[in-house]
Structures are given as structure tokens and as C-alpha cells.
Amino acid sequence: MAKIKIMTDSTCDLPASYFKEYGISVAPINIQFGNETFEEGVSIDQTTFYKKVDALGIIPTTSQPSVGQFAELYRACAKEGYDTIISLHVTGKLSGTMNSATLAAQEVEKEIRVLPYDSLAGSAAIGFMCVDAVKMARAGKSAEEIVAVLDQKRPNARVFLTLATTKYAQMSGRISNLQGFIATLLNVKPMVSLKDGTLAPSGRVRTRQAALTELLELTKEAAGNNPVDFAVIHGEARAEAEQVMEKGKRMLNVRDSFIDDIAISLAVHFGPGVIGTVIYPA
Asked: 167-192: string of b/e by CB count within 10 Å (b at 16+)?
């Protein structure tokens, strides 16, 4: 039986206990403040990130792990006795991470088989995919079988977000198709959804409370009564995240659920106060 390793990048949102329990390896995204470069989750954490942004008054840029960084991680897995890696990443439509992983997979192909996989999503949607993949690998499924199931579930993995501030989104070039939408929102809370790998406007509401309600309405509309894994992600807004989780559990048919801090590499684009809901077919 093939020994399969599941790997991802640091845009993947999962509680620390999950990474440990499921043995998921992570390639860190690079966070750059001027000339200083940090590896997400390795040399910079959420608290330091928000403090630095406040102190410096600048929003850092992000860049994908290099081909060399990926190749090194893949080779380490080969040394640990794995023969196949499924490398699950943030949507290739918004980041070059998938491209780096693909080039690195070619570089190490004589040492280990690597299947780079585009989640067409981000955040906890990748997290749930990784957990799903590990469970299937542990149950003896082949890499091809795992990828086939992920392909089937991927269109129904959804992320919905509401931003507390539009400053970050305007300063970040990544959300280009949202620029006009966000620029017109003076005192309005924008709703954004991630579907099929692309961020798209999903409406606008007047107040924060209305935004949190709308977030759950959009989530319910996408999930219906189907069983889902459900996550609430947030940027320094734990109390509101708990409120959304509690209501979400009453509205949705929830199997597994968690609340998590949004990855720094995503907070760069969405800003503090962002709240997101994530569903994945259970």
C-alpha cells in the first residue's frame, strides 16, 4: 500500500490540534514588510503581524513559497519513507503557490511522486480538504481515489466573507475584480464569496450585525440541508466569530466544526475584523 503524505500551504486555516492529529505538513507563505521577510507561522504569528501593521502603518506583501522551498519539503517526505504526496493549495487563480508546487513536483519526480492539487479555494476549505484526504489515505484509498473524491466535492466547498474595513482590500492588489466594488463602499459592509477559485462581490449591507446575518444566509443558501463541515474564521474578532458559529450550528446540518484565526497571508488582503464562514461537503 502506498504511503501517502498530505501537504498544504499556510493559507490553510485549521486549528493547531488538527495539523498534529492528521500529520499535515505546511509550506509557509512569505510575508514581506519592506526588506524584512518572514515565513508565515514560522517566524511571524498573528499577534506580531497586527502589531507590525499598526506600528509601521504599512500592509506587507505576500509571495508564494519558492520552488526550492517546496522541493526541500518534498525531499524531506521522501526521506521519511513516503512514496506519494498530495500537495493541496490555495486557488491558483489568486496565487502562484500552485505553480511553485507544480514546478517542484517535476524537479523531484525521480525521488518522490507529488500530485499538486488546486483547491480552487482557500482558508478552512483547504483545511477540511486536507483532513478529508488524510482520513481517506488512512482508510487505504489510493492517491487517485482521493483526488477523484476531492474533485467531486470541490465545487461545493465555499467561503463567504465580510470585511470590517476596506483599507486592506484597497491596498492589496490581489482582489482586482473587487476594486471598483470596494471603492464605492464608504460606510457599507461588503460581502465577498470565493467560488471556483475566484473572489466575487456578494452584496453589501449597512451594519456589522446585518453583515453577520447575511453571512449566514449566504452560507445556508449554498449548503441547503446537506451535511457539511463548518468553520468560522476571523481576524481579531473572536467574540463575533463565536456568535456566528452558535447561530450557524442551529441553521446548518453540521458534522465537524471549528473557529480559527484567519491566516496572515489572507488577513493581509482582508484586514482585521474580517469574519468568514466556510462549508465543505461532509
From this structure: ebbbebeebeebeebbeebeebbbbb
